[in-house]
Amino acid sequence: MSDEIQIMPSTLEGFLADIIQHEKRYAHNERGAKNERRSKVVEKVEETAARELDKK
Amino acid sequence: MKLLTIKLLNFRQFYGSQTIHFATDSVQNVTLFHAENGVGKTTLLNAILWCFYGQSGVTEKFESSNNILSYQAASEKQMIAKVDVAFEHEGRMYMATRRHSASPGGRPEESLLAYEILNGNTEPLPAPDAFIASVVPMEMAHHFFFDGEHAESFASTGNFRKVGEAIRNMLGSTVADSAIEDLKYAAKQFGDNLADLPGEESIRQKSAELQAAQSNLEKCLSDRQRLEENLVVFNDQIALIDQDLLDTRSAKELQQKRIQLEGVFRTANAALAEADRDGVRWIGRQAINVVASRLSTETLHFIDDEKLRGKIPSPYNEELVMTLLSQEACLCGRPLEPGTECFANIQNLLRKAGNAEVQSKVMRARGYLGELKVKRAAAPKDLNRSQISYASAYQSSKLAEQQLAELSEKLSKIDYDQIAHKEKARADFVLKSKAADRDIGQIILKISIYERSIENLTREQQRLALSNAKAMKLLNRKTLAERAVELLKGVLASHEEQARVFIAAEVNRILSVTARRDYKFAFGSGFSFDLTFASTGRPVPRSSGENQLLSLAFIAALIKFCRDRSLAKGSPLLLPGIVAPLILDSPFGQLDSTYRVDTSRFIALMAEQVALFVSSSQGSPDVLEVLKDRVGKEYVLISENRGPRNGKHSEELFLNGYRYETSLFGCEKDMTRIEVVQQ
Q1: pLDDT > 70: what percent of chain B?
Q2: Does the reported pTM lie above 0.80?
Q3: Is B319 touching A (CB cutoff 8 A)?
Q4: Residues of B in contact with A43 (CB under 8 A)
């Protein structure tokens, strides 16, 4: 998608593992949790990008 | 996971408290339920689903799922319905209890509790829903607790979405799927923020264009998938109609063959008639030879004999006698005077004397008799030739007649009324298929245009963002979410492909031992089922029975796949596989008796624990005989009705030599009673 924004594979894998853990916590609680679950994914993207990408 | 017991309290028609113990033996692993339609097979299956997952877990056939309480109980002001399921999981014993309490005029309440059973005591588990979902995730449960009357739906044309969903469910990809959706959502959020960035008109504009292009691309990809799925359905339909019409085409071929055979038949009959006439001619030609055989032989002998003896001399002779009389002298020189006795004697010879004409006649007769003898010798050969011609013509005629009768029978079985209808349907599908093909081509073109556009816009967006810290931050977030989506999709696609390969191989293995013919199964485009004849590669025209068999084989393969995944160390992105009992409601509904027997052989092997619901028509004696050694527990569901019989037929079952009347009338309660079958 991008030639200039470099994301290390380890960063991507760590991020994905975190997202999957998060999704698993919500896997058994479907009702009314979708918005909360998505908001938290946005937050996690924010956190990871701030930590791993913004400073570069 | 293995089911141990289920205890029902006022659950629908199962009034009062009733308990079922499941077979847990590794060999006698089948719990068999006999029940006629409407008595409670589907309800019993759904009692387990309801206990584990509540109303959202029951099957489509379980209507009015919020209406759990037994009418009989409600009429007695009992307001509690409950299902307790005891099960063993990874060496420990647990109990799940779901309770439904109704209150007059109020909303019914439901609650789930789960316990671990330790030394006879119950230890409550803190998050029962999560615990049950970890034992058997709901999305997997429906492939274990299975409504068999809809079994063929997996194999029905156009149901590959269901198949793909089932494979993804058993693959445990629901969490990863959900992550993909959420990450896409996050990427879009950051993209929208970029497109709304205040004070940066060029970035805003590029970002807005990019968002629009991405949205269009998403739509195109979704349209492409839909069109490709439609194309599979259209082509499947065309293939099925082609198979049907092959009979029609073969009818034309049969008709042509019939015309040809009728020609052969006519020629053979003409040859037969000719051979018949030849026989008659032979009689005319040879009868005299055969009949005169003895006469001619004896006559020839006679002539030859007489000749040798000089009885037919040549000539004793009129000419000689006349000379003697005219010369009046005997051969010995003595005079023959007219009027003397000697003269008179010689003169008398004239009456018997032969002449040249007589001799010639005798010789001609002899020649003719000789000819008769030669012809007589040739007569059998002549007859034999005639008989061979007759036999050959007869054989050709009979063969043609027999083949014509067979053709006629084949032609009589073809439904000609359907041909025009099918031709029209086929033409419609061909048009639709062409249209879908054309649309796909156009969409592929659009996709490549949007992809190029997105690539350019992304590059442009990044170039602009480099000079703007806020934009760069948003772009980092968007890119991170997008790359995570791509990575997850790649991993899932790889797992899915492995699953497809495994399941296809397993389905083929099952079909090789159960199907009547030599079939070959493969996944077609998407998750469509391609079933072909192994020998010819032609598609199998699938009846409901074959669809059901194929679906059962698919389910068995899914269960094995899931079990193998539970044993192997899987991907952290996927939920682990599970081992669970297989509960099949009416799995033989569409199968004929042969398939039922063949299928029941492998049903017991489909899972470590199997519960099977059968009606009397499905649980035929031959099926029960096959299952006999695998049944560990056996129950019969008996419908008890308070009302009178009113002429309704008596329904009864004979099991292990005992008689069970399955519909009773004039009873104390309206309910279904679960009775243990005596062994």
Answers
A1: 94
A2: no
A3: no
A4: none
